Amino acid sequence: MKVGNHAQETLDDIVRRKRKELDDAGVIYWGYGGSTCHPLTVVKPYADRLERAGHVIHLLMEPMDSKHFAEPALAEEYSDDGVKWKPIPRGVHVRGSRYALVLDSFDEQTLDLDLSQLRVAIGACQGRPASEYVKGRVDKGCFVVDPSLRPADLPPKHIGLIASVRSPYAVLLR
What we know:
Radius of gyration: 16 Å
Number of strands: 9
Number of domains: 1
Helix content: 10-25%
Distance between the termini: 22 Å
Shape: globular
């Protein structure tokens, strides 16, 4: 996922706020938008499959320049099924987002990621190399490592933040 300024906050401010959320609430709701990683039709089926296979699900974030300065409206409720809505946990603040990934760790780490070694794991583009998928306005996806892919002569993505995703993985917000 590409990350940057959002809802009138700098990425540095967001990172500080999310660290406090983890300390105060024991969980982070990392807000996002867009349809490529819809919580109910993409993220949850992907995460359920990986968890059943015994894998840990990581969110890798590539810092970028962003001009997203939408209204910083706070979400008040979340739903993990689209039917039942619950109050956002005390100490958690999600601004200007329709969805959120649910995280239980959050670290600043540097990692160079070769997208040509990953494939889209779910959805209409399943099987497509991530290096072809993440282009233009597509800034996130659910991927799996595929050792059979040959490295492409592309610059790596510079990951700066890594988190662990936990059940219920992703939620709807309002």
